[in-house]
């Protein structure tokens, strides 16, 4: 077990409320990618692999910025780190404005990368905060509560952003194909101009929330210096982060989990369109995935740790992921889409279980370990590109490409749930 922590909950529920609000923001910004992918395909005439650079730019920022974020948090603390992250998030949102005016896809990707960098700092601060402000065995429950806020934001994003960005998408797509010269230029300018007001509003909201946190009593949480060996009941001195192999297996588990989550959430619209479903309908499919994730979070809040452990919940989720992926491959049409959406249910309790298991027993290395875990989010950057490459360049059927891309993710998650989280630790 770990030496007791400075429990931030002793100051009331305020820390949890603030972090839940942050998770809502994470969800809104992150799951907007599901709408931006078809929007940029429409606006720039992109291939799948080009459009998936949206998720690449967003999630690769975590890989490059997570460890620097850990260093920043050590220097300025959790609260100032959250404030800084929100301001940078606002700056990333404002980059969308000149990107739309100049119709530069690369500049959009820059704005998305800046947003991802801000989210890396915010996630590196908030996830361990949720883990260490209460008992470790109920960390999955607290993360599930925050996850409901995250996924609720993701559910409403397609309806807000989809309505604003992809209104009459099928009609506009045909008009763009038929238009030429100045008429086409004006049409494209009008379509891209749809991003201006929403992202200006988002930038203002992020900065105002940073101001709220500035004047909120959000306690610093100091983690323990060392940990106790469960088998001997003695304090064990650790000198290197590399003495915790379960951490790196946890980071790899986060990598494949986020890969699977993005494939179920952001790619489902493209998947549905490939099945012949209209873009005006498929733009809402991300909400189906996140709705099923929301159900899973509610189950987690009720069941963990009262009825099941977070390790057992992770095993169940991994097995469901394998089953739903197989059924999605073997079916077609709306049935296949429904089982892709049900992967949201399978994915729901994975982050809440994987993260605390990965950073458990780290003691003074908790912040660095958290950053390493956050680096695993880069799986969401690479997997859509891998899927597109397998589908387009290896000429596999898109359903088979999806199957061979996603199945290994759930197999590794099952391994981590059964054995991987205990590697290098003396746990009973």
What would you say about this model in short?
Keywords: Cell membrane, Membrane, Transmembrane, Transmembrane helix. This protein has 428 residues and is an all-alpha fold.
Poorly predicted sequence stretches spanning 5 or more consecutive residues: 1-11, 226-231
What would CATH call the class? Mainly Alpha
From the alpha carbons, calculate the radius of gyration and give it in angstroms. Answer: 21 Å
β-strand amount: under 5%
Strand order of the largest sheet: 1-2
- CATH structural architecture: Up-down Bundle
Question: What attributes does this structure have?
Answer:
two-stranded antiparallel ribbon; 428 residues; mainly alpha; Growth Hormone, Chain: A; 75% helix
Question: Could you describe the 3D structure shown?
Answer:
The structure is a single chain. This protein has one domain (9-213, 227-422): Growth Hormone, Chain: A. Helices cover 75% and strands 1% of the residues. It is built from 20 helices and two strands. It has a two-stranded antiparallel ribbon. A hairpin with a 4-residue loop joins strand 1 and strand 2.
């Amino acid at each position: 077990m770990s030496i007791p922590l400075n429990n931030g909950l002793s100051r009331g529920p305020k820390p949890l409320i603030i972090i839940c609000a942050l998770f809502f923001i994470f969800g809104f910004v992150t799951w907007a990618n599901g709408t931006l992918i078809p929007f940029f395909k429409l606006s720039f005439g992109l291939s799948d692999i080009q459009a998936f650079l949206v998720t690449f730019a967003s999630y690769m920022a975590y890989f490059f910025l997570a460890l620097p974020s850990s260093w920043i948090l050590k220097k300025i603390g959790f609260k100032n780190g959250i404030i800084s992250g929100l301001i940078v998030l606002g700056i990333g949102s404002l980059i969308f404005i000149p990107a739309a005016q100049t119709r530069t896809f690369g500049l959009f990707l820059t704005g998305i990368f800046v947003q991802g960098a801000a989210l890396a700092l915010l996630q590196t601060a908030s996830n361990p905060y949720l883990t260490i402000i209460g008992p470790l065995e109920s960390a999955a429950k607290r993360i599930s509560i925050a996850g409901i806020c995250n996924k609720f934001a993701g559910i409403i994003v397609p309806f807000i952003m989809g309505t604003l960005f992809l209104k009459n998408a099928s009609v506009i797509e045909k008009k763009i194909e038929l238009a030429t010269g100045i008429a086409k230029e004006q049409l494209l300018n009008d379509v891209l101009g749809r991003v201006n007001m929403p992202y200006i509003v988002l930038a203002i909201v992020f900065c105002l929330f940073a101001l709220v946190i500035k004047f909120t009593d959000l306690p610093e949480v100091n983690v323990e210096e060392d940990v106790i060996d469960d088998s001997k009941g003695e304090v064990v001195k650790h000198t290197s982060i590399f003495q915790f192999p379960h951490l790196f297996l946890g980071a790899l588990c986060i990598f494949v989990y986020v890969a699977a989550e993005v494939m179920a959430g952001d790619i489902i619209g493209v998947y549905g369109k490939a099945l012949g479903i209209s873009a005006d309908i498929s733009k809402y499919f991300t909400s189906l995935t996140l709705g099923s994730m929301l159900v899973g979070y509610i189950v987690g809040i009720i069941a963990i740790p009262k009825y099941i452990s977070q390790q057992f919940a992770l095993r169940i989720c991994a097995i469901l992921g394998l089953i739903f992926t197989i059924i999605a491959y073997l079916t077609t049409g709306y049935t296949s889409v429904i089982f892709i959406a049900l992967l949201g249910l399978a994915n729901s309790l994975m982050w809440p279980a994987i993260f605390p298991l990965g950073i458990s027993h780290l003691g003074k290395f908790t912040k660095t370990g958290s950053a390493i875990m956050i680096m695993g989010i880069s799986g969401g950057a690479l997997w859509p590109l891998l899927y597109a490459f397998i589908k387009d360049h290896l000429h596999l059927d898109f359903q088979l490409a999806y199957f061979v891309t996603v199945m290994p993710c759930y197999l590794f998650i099952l391994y981590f749930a059964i054995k991987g989280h205990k590697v290098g630790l003396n746990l009973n």
